[in-house]
């Protein structure tokens, strides 16, 4: 990872005033590549920050629109999308966090958006951008994001997280996290639309409330035999490895027994496909005779 000590003001857009330049310089040089686990974002803050980050960072690399909390909102202009793609091409080459952060913050839509927020919120926005940049430091972070065509709910155009190094059981994937924010009933009614943006909402049995679960960890898909698990810490959750992984293995977690209907009858995960469960149950009878195990039912081993 490179953290640039020089800041070229001549690269600034003419529309950015001196105070904005100073803030951008400070924000782009004072970051931590592992942002704090605690935050003060409201549910609306988190939704909006996340949509900006996925638009600028993830979509620019995958070249399609990934999940959004407010799908109808247009966060950046078309020319800024082109600029974001260039920013990410450079970042994937040099891993210069400072340069990438500064370039993102100089985009007109971002400058205008952050002008409405306190400096503390601007820092939290910057930190959220950093969380997503970590997805594209393969050797440093040990994971990245790739296109996924498995799930019909996403019209078979979605994303998945995969390991880019060997991970051992018990390891913590330090640079991969979920960002958590509790919601009250009013916030649920204001933000959530069933079947549209409720893709990353969990219910906390301890706090007895719904929680948003966004950030890079929201791209982790479910599997009935997961490779990893969520470990929550109030405002964030880290990812712990349950089974040894090699480069290319998907990072998956278990969403719950009823997440995809009664006994996960609508589950489309790789394990259900392999074992003829979930939506693949009807395919069991179509299995070729030579593939069957006779009178014995074999149990998978970890």
UniProtKB/TrEMBL annotation:
Signal peptide: none annotated. It holds the Pfam family SET. It catalyses: N(6),N(6)-dimethyl-L-lysyl(20)-[histone H4] + S-adenosyl-L-methionine = N(6),N(6),N(6)-trimethyl-L-lysyl(20)-[histone H4] + S-adenosyl-L-homocysteine + H(+); N(6)-methyl-L-lysyl(20)-[histone H4] + S-adenosyl-L-methionine = N(6),N(6)-dimethyl-L-lysyl(20)-[histone H4] + S-adenosyl-L-homocysteine + H(+). It is an enzyme of class 2 (transferase). Keywords: Chromatin regulator, Chromosome, Methyltransferase, Nucleus, Repressor, S-adenosyl-L-methionine, Transcription, Transcription regulation, Transferase. GO terms for cellular component: chromosome; nucleus. GO terms for biological process: methylation. InterPro entries: Hist-Lys_N-MTase_N, SET_dom, SET_dom_sf, Suv4-20/Set9, Suv4-20_animal. PROSITE patterns: SAM_MT43_SUVAR420_2, SET. Residues 141-256 form the SET domain. It is found in: Chromosome; Nucleus. The keyword Cell division does not apply. Histone methyltransferase that specifically di- and trimethylates 'Lys-20' of histone H4 (H4K20me2/me3). H4 'Lys-20' trimethylation represents a specific tag for epigenetic transcriptional repression. Contributes to dosage compensation of X chromosome-relative to autosome-linked gene expression, possibly by converting H4K20me1 to H4K20m2/me3 on autosomes. Involved in the regulation of growth and body fat metabolism downstream of the TOR complex 2 pathway. This is Histone-lysine N-methyltransferase Suv4-20.
